[in-house]
Amino acid sequence: DPLEPGELLEILSTEISVPQDLPAWCRLTGNSLVSHIVDGRQHSFLVSKGSFTGMPAPSPTNAPAAPRAKAGARRRHAPITQPIRPVVRPQVLPAPAAVPAIRPLSVMGIGSWPRPRWLLEALHRHLEAKLSDVEFQEIADDAVRLCVQAQLRAGVDVVVDGEQRRDNYASFVGGLLDNCQLIPITDLLPYVDDPEEFERELRSLDVPAGKIRHPAVFGPLGRSRPLAVHEAEFLRTLTDRPIKVALPGPYLLTRTMWMECISDRAYASREQLAADIVRVLREELHHLLAAGVALVQFDEPVLTEVVFGRARENRTFMCGALGDKLPPDQELDFALRLFNMTVVGLPQERIALHVCRGNWSRDETIALHGDYQPLLPYLMAVDAGILLLESCTPRAGTIDVLARLPQTKRIGIGMVNQKLDAVESPADVRRRAEHAIETLGAARVLFTPDCGFATFADNPISSAQVAEAKLGVITSVARQMREIHGVG
Fold this sequence. Notes:
This protein is of the alpha/beta class. Helices cover 32% and strands 14% of the residues. The protein has helices at 18-29, 117-127, 133-154, 195-204, 229-236, 250-257, 270-290, 302-308, 328-343, 376-381, 426-440, 464-485, and strands at residues 8-13, 32-39, 42-48, 178-184, 213-222, 244-248, 295-299, 351-355, 386-389, 410-416, 445-449. The chain is globular, with a radius of gyration of 24 Å. Mean pLDDT is 85; it is low at 55-88 and 311-321.
């Protein structure tokens, strides 16, 4: 605070995470990182208060290395040499590979699976730059193996990797895209309209707010590395059954990443940001389908926040939707255009949309309530061949309204409530299955849980044992239904 604009502060540190954290802090606060040099274990940073206009000219690239400074001597700082990474725009996107069709009445998880404690420890160390990427991936591989084994024991038809490498179902993208970074959600306090209300809402979460990281955009978004293709490639080595990969949807990411005072430094409007989000998701979608992924699922839980959230006094943090929004009909139209732009020209039968009403807490009373009637225009027009819809919880209303959806769309019906410890009885699941088949037709129905078992890594909704048991009940009923209806 005592510094005048443009004056410099030297910051010295031996902490391993500071080379990553300090530049992010500078971008977040609008200060300029002028230089960064390393002297043994010590890092030295020069930070300008606000913009810095007195940048010294860079040294020639072939200049000899400067001698190591003596103790107590002032060191000459070279200008920072880490500009914004260029946005990669591939000229030709790969075509989808051929895969077997997913048969009627198939069983699959929605996406997430409880992480072992040792994986959670590795995940946080990796996010804090205290564990290398190679070491973390090896640890995560072991967790994926356990997750896949549990699903195969339960008898699922379509396998997921449990999102074991992700801190949660959506924000992980922020740590992989160019010019985007994950920051603790508590660091957003200075940038919201009502910090006290924001802090109160954070305290009400079942998810530990200090462990939630939020994507912040600091420049034009690009995809110079995969978001989930590496997950799919490893998963493909573990099973010959069809595999599914979940990604956050384009509307969810736009609502999450558009934050005034941060993203508006890189984008003039939410629509401009959305255009780049559509582009990078479309690139990823092409590569996933080319890698043999049978089904790519886009998660758009914020759609229910659009139509039901205005009746609540508090913001819903199930998807980190911090940005402002327009009236519901305009938001749904915007969301529809983004989704259809993302998937245009690609096989709809291999593209799914998942919608729920919040999966950050086991407390049913604080999640959103309402049937699918307000979302029917969106669900009818969206270019997804499969809709995976929460329907077991009473909060979702009856599935009868879904009978109005086009016959071309297959519907994944939630058969179990992942928020309940008690494993549903085969009789209860069978009643739901028979009602779904009677309402929609056996050829269109798929069976799932209502949502993931561990949407947030640090706050699993179920244990791995309960998750496996619930999937096992669904698969036993699905086998009966296939035999009765002669499908599959």
